[in-house]
From TrEMBL:
Signal peptide: none annotated. Residues 119-210 form the CAAX prenyl protease 2/Lysostaphin resistance protein A-like domain. Keywords: Hydrolase, Membrane, Metalloprotease, Protease, Transmembrane, Transmembrane helix. This is CPBP family intramembrane metalloprotease. GO terms for molecular function: endopeptidase activity; metallopeptidase activity. InterPro entries: MmRce1-like, Rce1/LyrA-like_dom. One of its GO terms (biological process) is CAAX-box protein maturation. It holds the Pfam family Rce1-like. The chain crosses the membrane at residues 12-33, 39-66, 78-101, 107-126, 146-165, 177-194, 230-250.
Length: 264
């Protein structure tokens, strides 16, 4: 048992990524292949994997660190503005820019009323990714990647695996090239947010806002105009990610001397 725990400790990120992919894919792919349809996407795979590997490799103290980051709300107010405003602003900007490239005017009436969206968003926050993913991606993987990699390299590694994690959704037509690229770019922005707050809670809020801004504001367009608007959104996220790297550098994404690791 001791040798197994030593192995998990030595290769904890490998175990985490393999388990996160396995728990999600093994529930989804076999059922699809045998029945021609999918069961609900198991969005809790990364979180469950993070807690399992943290417990095996670091014990209660490692698990407690993730839990503490999930309820860490005392951060500078500007970071709440970033978590909510940046994804929403990027999506809104892509909508306003889209007609400049030949799309129809946005059909604002297609976007549901806020009172209708709010309860659905609450359900999506729990069952559609944010709560099930962020404790794993940001709470477990990010600080451990940062121990041996620059913030940019850690973000790109995690972003690539995060994108791969979504691949089985292509079986049901719920995967796009622009969405895949956006995930990798978003990983840079999420690392920046986490590095400056040490809060998985803020990452969850940004995930909720990003996901649902696309889901609901995107209804302003249909067909080719929608696809074009999403590519504009990708370009905006690329600009945001590039600005972070240009201003903060590649090492830590934090403007403090010697800063490297996320505050966990």
């Amino acid at each position: 048992m001791s040798s197994f725990l030593d192995l998990v400790w030595k290769h904890r990120l490998t175990f985490f990524f393999a388990l996160a992919l396995g728990l999600t894919w093994l529930a989804f792919i076999p059922f699809y292949l045998s029945h021609g349809e999918s069961i609900p996407w198991f969005t809790f795979g990364p979180a469950v994997s993070g807690f399992i590997v943290a417990a095996l490799a670091g014990g209660w103290s490692a698990v407690k660190a993730i839990l503490a980051s999930m309820v860490k709300w005392r951060v500078r107010p500007i970071w709440y503005l970033v978590a909510f405003g940046l994804p929403f602003g990027a999506q809104l900007a892509s909508i306003l820019i889209n007609p400049l490239f030949g799309s129809a005017p946005p059909a604002w009436g297609n976007i549901p009323a806020f009172s209708e969206i709010l309860p659905i968003v609450a359900l999506y926050a729990v069952f559609s990714g944010p709560l099930g993913e962020e404790p794993g991606w940001r709470g477990f993987a990010t600080p451990r990647l940062l121990a041996n990699h620059s913030a940019l390299a850690a973000s790109l590694i995690l972003g690539a695996i995060w994108a791969i994690w979504h691949f089985p959704l292509g079986l049901v037509g719920d995967l796009s090239l622009y969405g895949t690229i956006n995930v990798v770019l978003a990983a840079i922005v999420f690392t920046w947010l986490y590095q400056n707050t040490g809060s998985v809670l803020l990452a969850i809020l940004m995930h909720v806002t990003h996901q649902n801004s696309v889901r609901f504001l995107g209804k302003a367009f249909v067909d080719g105009d929608y696809v074009q608007q999403q590519w504009i959104g990708v370009a905006i996220w690329a600009i945001i990610a590039s600005a972070i790297v240009a201003y903060y550098g590649t090492e830590s994404f934090v403007r403090r001397p010697g800063a490297r690791l996320a505050v966990a």
